[in-house]
Structures are given as C-alpha cells and as structure tokens.
Amino acid sequence: MRSERGLLIVLSGPSGVGKGTVRKALFNQEDIQFQYSVSATTRNPREGEVNGVDYFFKMREEFERMIANNELLEWAEFVGNYYGTPIAYVEQTLQQGKDVFLEIEVQGALQVKKAFPEGVFIFLAPPSLSELKSRIVGRGTETEDVIHNRLTVAKEEIEMMDAYDYVVENDEVQLACDRIKAIVVGEHCRRERVAKYYKQMTEVE
Ligand SMILES: Nc1ncnc2c1ncn2[C@@H]1O[C@H](COP(=O)(O)OP(=O)(O)OP(=O)(O)O)[C@@H](O)[C@H]1O
Ligand SMILES: Nc1nc2c(ncn2[C@@H]2O[C@H](COP(=O)(O)O)[C@@H](O)[C@H]2O)c(=O)[nH]1
C-alpha cells in the first residue's frame, strides 16, 4: 500500500559537492521512479545545457514576475543569480502519487522544509572542505571570484546540516546514489507502516 501523495525528496548541499552529478547518475538508473523538478534560473546556460531539461533559463524580469505571481515553491538568490522551483509541476506530480525530486541549494531547501515539513531532506556532504574546493575548481565552469564566493557560502551552508533529516557523504557517486535510494525506500516503508497502524487504531475505536 503506497500513501496517496508522492514523496517530496530534497537533495541539497554546498556548491560543488556533486549534487548535479549524483542526481544525473540516479536518473540514469532504470529502477528510479522519482520525477525531476526542473528549476528556473537567471544564470546563463553552460555549454551543453538545454532549456527545459537542465533549467528553464529566464531573464531577471521574467523570474521576478514568477515570484510576484506566486509561481515558485521556493526561490533564492545564489551568488548573483535567481534560482527557483516552479510550484505547479511539484503539486500536480505529488497529487498523482509520484515522488518528486528537487536538487536545490540550502536557503531554498529550508524554505521548502517550512512549506512541506513532510518532505525528505537530504544533505549531500563532501568528504572534506579541501575535496570540495578541488571539485569546484576542477569543474572549471566558474571564474576565480565566483569560486571564492561559492566556497565562502559553502562554509555557512555546512553549518545548516543539522536541519536536514539525513546526511549522505558523496565520497563515490554510486555509493551516494545507493544511500539515497535506501533512504527513499526506508521512508516509504516507514510511512506505510504508520498509515497501516493508524488505520488499525482508528478502526478499533
Ligand atoms: N563523488 C565524487 N568524486 C569525485 N568528483 C566528484 C564526485 N561527485 C562530483 N564530482 C565532481 O565534482 C564537480 C562538481 O560536481 P557538480 O557540478 O555535480 O556539483 P554541484 O553540487 O551540483 O554544484 P553546484 O551546486 O555548483 O551546481 C564535478 O566536476 C564532478 O564531476
Ligand atoms: N534554491 C534553489 N536552488 C537551486 C535551484 N536549482 C538549482 N539550485 C542550486 O543552485 C546552485 C547553483 O547551481 P548551478 O547550476 O549554477 O551550479 C546549486 O547549489 C543548485 O543545486 C532551485 O530551484 N532553487
């Protein structure tokens, strides 16, 4: 027995820890049944990124209109650009009983936690700060200034780890994927057990 609404799964963590890499690896696996929520952003597309697949790329004015029209479940300004989660897709998909997967930064994840405390909040942690730095530098997509800013923010974000339900270390991509899948299976089982016992108890009365 599955609960009627899907689970909202939020993967978050500092820039460069490997959220995008782990998310892509997860979605390449055949047994994955989560639906990925594509975010909106005002940042410029990186080489190879496709509008509507990686992000919905927006002008600042368009994004601000989305904020004003309450079209976003959460949004944040991160190192000079807006990022946000379109609410309509998330609501419709959860309503259809499907699990929705968000990959977002920490300010946004904390906003989602307020709106959807029943979500599953996973903090992806680097093996060390020096490894985080080499990953973000090694990716080669940011200027030195942006790297410096992202690392400064990362130190503050790591302090928010405690607000999450789970911490998953991204030492190896496949291991991180396996841990996330195990968390989701465990959460479904836990919620189904609670629903079953709740039904039994209320039937007795
Ligand atoms: N487990 C891992 N071991 C080694 N390198 C990794 C691992 N996971 C990701 N990386 C590398 O680290 C870099 C950053 O990864 P990625 O872009 O996925 O991070 P991110 O958390 O999505 O960053 P951002 O928040 O800035 O978008 C990439 O070059 C990626 O290949
Ligand atoms: N609060 C939100 N953060 C988001 C969203 N989509 C992506 N992100 C996060 O932004 C940073 C930077 O991303 P990048 O693609 O420019 O490297 C990263 O931590 C993403 O996870 C969102 O909808 N809301």
TrEMBL record:
Gene3D superfamilies: Guanylate Kinase phosphate binding domain, P-loop containing nucleotide triphosphate hydrolases. Residues 6-185 form the Guanylate kinase-like domain. CDD domains: GMPK. Pfam families: Guanylate_kin. InterPro entries: GK/Ca_channel_bsu, Guanylate_kin-like_dom, Guanylate_kinase, Guanylate_kinase_CS, P-loop_NTPase. ATP binds at residues 13-20. It catalyses: GMP + ATP = GDP + ADP. It is found in: Cytoplasm. The keyword Transferase applies. Keywords: ATP-binding, Cytoplasm, Kinase, Nucleotide-binding, Transferase. It comes from the Bacteria. Its EC number is 2.7.4.8. PROSITE patterns: GUANYLATE_KINASE_1, GUANYLATE_KINASE_2. It is an enzyme of class 2 (transferase). One of its GO terms (molecular function) is GMP kinase activity. PANTHER family: GUANYLATE KINASE, GUANYLATE KINASE-RELATED. Belongs to the guanylate kinase family. Essential for recycling GMP and indirectly, cGMP. This is Guanylate kinase. The gene is gmk.
